[in-house]
């Protein structure tokens, strides 16, 4: 049976790096940016649109979302993208073992018994420093990015799933990457997946 | 340096059993009911009062709490108990390595770098079956207990700490005991504590 690990993450927590390292250790692919290309091909939307709208609450807020234009099927562009994304994620999980970072993959695969859903987080101060260092920007700019990105990811997740972003009960395990370290998180995820496969 | 593991848990998730097993494996004491005795001795309150009021939101709700009688120091009985409980937990952690189950120990020890704070949870259906089986009661009665106990623990935690009960960001790791199994949770907790001590 395919082994699937999905990773939701706070911005700057190292979730993407952890996902890549877990996939490398297990010898399976990690889908992150690659997923965007597949969803763009499936949906017909531009890559930039998929990247922005497929995980982040639209700038216009979900309140005004209620009033935006819809097709004859009653669905907005955002809804079409959501379904296309879900379809791509489900097909990937059926095809092969893999790690999927972001894009509410945990929700898309909620009926997969062999799927391990993780949430990676860390203290905000740690994440701001990490983002500033990695992107070579000021801490004040990094702080804005961290705040905005988390808020948008949370709104998108809470709107499209019936779960709550960041609440431990939405996942199978949640790990503090500051406390445990990146390598520690990789170890624990692989251990969890091992136990889950037994 | 002492190694402290605190366990917060949803009712029926097996958190208490996991705490005991982790402590046995590490050869250190596990404080759960024993903590109640120590807090009773410290505070002068009866054990039954400590057991009920030291982890559960009072039946009268925290709204009416605003109007209850207080001593000359402006503190209610609940507040006195909270401080006595915190003192006992801090003293335990200074004295020896141990596992502490419940009682907002994660918050009392938030300044301890060598403390690992875990949250154990599971799907409600699983917990209801587990409680009904363990206590030999009907599933309908177990369901009431699960709902009420979780609600009271959450209210107490949210009121006395500045964190949110069950939100992964309140802990260092959170584990789904249904998905991972009791033994799996024990393994993961010991592994986390090991990494944290390195």
Describe this structure as you would to a colleague.
- 2 copies of one chain form a homodimer.
- By secondary structure, the first copy, chain A, is an alpha/beta fold.
- The first copy, chain A, is built from 10 helices and 5 strands, in the order E-H-E-H-H-H-H-E-H-E-H-H-E-H-H.
- In chain A, helix 1 packs across helix 10 (182-197).
- The N and C termini of chain A lie close together (11 Å).
- Chain A binds chain B through residues 116, 119, 121, 166-169, 171-176, 179-181, 184, 187-188, 191-192, 195-196, and chain B through 116, 119, 121, 166-169, 171-176, 179-181, 184, 187-188, 191-192, 195-196.
Give the largest interface pair and sizes: A-B, 23 and 23 residues
Helix content of chain A: 55-70%
Work out the number of β strands of chain A.
5
Q: What oligomerization state is this entry in? A: homodimer
Q: How many strands, what sense, and barrel or not for the largest sheet of chain A?
A: 5 strands, parallel
**Mean of residue pLDDT of chain A?**
89
Determine the structural class of chain A based on helices, strands and strand pairing. Answer: alpha/beta
Strand content of chain A: 5-15%
- What is the overall silhouette of chain A? globular
Radius of gyration of chain A: 17 Å
Query: Unreliable segments of chain A (pLDDT under 50, ≥5 consecutive)?
Result: none
Tally of contiguous helical segments of chain A: 10
Q: Biggest sheet of chain A, strands in spatial order?
A: 2-3-1-4-5
**Separation of the first and last Cα atoms of chain A:** 11 Å
Along the chain, the helix and strand elements of chain A come as EHEHHHHEHEHHEHH
């Amino acid at each position: 049976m395919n082994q699937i690990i999905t990773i939701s993450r706070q911005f700057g927590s190292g979730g993407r790096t952890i996902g890549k390292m877990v996939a490398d250790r297990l010898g399976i692919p990690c889908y992150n940016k690659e997923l965007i290309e597949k969803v763009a091909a499936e949906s017909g939307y531009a890559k930039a649109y998929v990247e922005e709208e497929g995980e982040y609450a639209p700038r216009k807020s979900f309140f005004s979302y209620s009033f935006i234009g819809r097709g004859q099927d009653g669905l907005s562009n955002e809804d079409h993208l959501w379904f296309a994304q879900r379809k791509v994620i489900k097909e990937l999980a059926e095809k092969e073992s893999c790690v999927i970072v972001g894009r509410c993959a945990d929700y898309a695969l909620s009926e997969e018994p062999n799927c391990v859903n993780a949430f990676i987080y860390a203290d905000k101060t740690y994440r701001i420093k990490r983002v500033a260092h990695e992107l070579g920007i000021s801490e004040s700019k990094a702080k804005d990015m961290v705040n905005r990105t988390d808020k948008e990811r949370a709104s998108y997740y809470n709107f499209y799933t019936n779960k709550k972003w960041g609440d431990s009960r939405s996942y199978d395990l949640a790990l503090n990457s500051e406390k445990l370290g990146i390598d520690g998180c990789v170890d624990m995820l692989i251990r969890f997946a091992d136990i889950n496969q037994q």
